[in-house]
UniProtKB/TrEMBL annotation:
Pfam families: AhpC-TSA
Keywords per UniProt: Redox-active center
Protein name according to UniProt: TlpA disulfide reductase family protein
Organism encoding this protein: Aliiglaciecola litoralis
Keyword Ribonucleoprotein: no
PROSITE patterns in the cross-refs: THIOREDOXIN_1 (PS00194), THIOREDOXIN_2 (PS51352)
Thioredoxin domain residues: 14-157
Family matches, as CDD domains: TlpA_like_family
């Protein structure tokens, strides 16, 4: 009898653990290339999220700098960059915009869910999310590759301590 109760308890614990694990794997956003992400899956990384719009001149002016930073991120494990269109364009419209302005970084399809930050009130806005999944900093206005790299490298040094 005790073995049956123990086995039933073990099954119940496994079911609850499986349920929570499946919740943690649900996508909070996907990119135009079809990859799905959850904020949980990006822990242990420094994540840069840039909000932009085509009508925002400073947003378009910073695209070359974000492209440079995207190259830096690709060469450095633990660093990711995503761009979110403030106007929530369709994937087709967003693809045209990406091509028109030669945006070389991951573009979020739609608006992300469960983000560790609120929708910005002005553009451009860039959010730095630490490797623990919390918002480290919100940057308003145009950013440069050098500024973003400096922030990321500083965070990485602090993590190494």
């Amino acid at each position: 009898m005790l073995k049956k109760i123990g086995f039933a308890l073990l099954l119940a614990v496994a079911a609850v653990a499986g349920f929570w694990f499946s919740l943690s794997l649900r996508a909070d956003f996907s990119t135009l290339d079809g990859k799905q992400y959850s904020w949980q899956s990006l822990k242990d990384q420094i994540v840069v999220v840039n909000y932009f719009a085509e009508w925002c001149a400073p947003c378009l002016k910073e695209v070359p700098e974000l492209n440079k930073f995207a190259q830096f991120a690709q060469q450095n494990d633990g660093v990711s960059i995503f761009a979110v269109n403030f106007d929530n364009l369709s994937d087709q419209e967003l693809s045209k915009l990406r091509d028109k302005y030669s945006m070389e970084f991951a573009m979020v399809s739609g608006l992300p869910k469960n983000a560790p930050f609120a929708m910005p009130k002005s553009l451009p806005a860039t959010f730095i999310i630490g490797s623990d999944g919390t918002l480290i900093k919100q940057l308003n206005g145009e950013q440069t590759d050098a500024q973003l790299q400096n922030i990321v490298l500083t965070l990485q040094k602090l993590q190494a301590l």
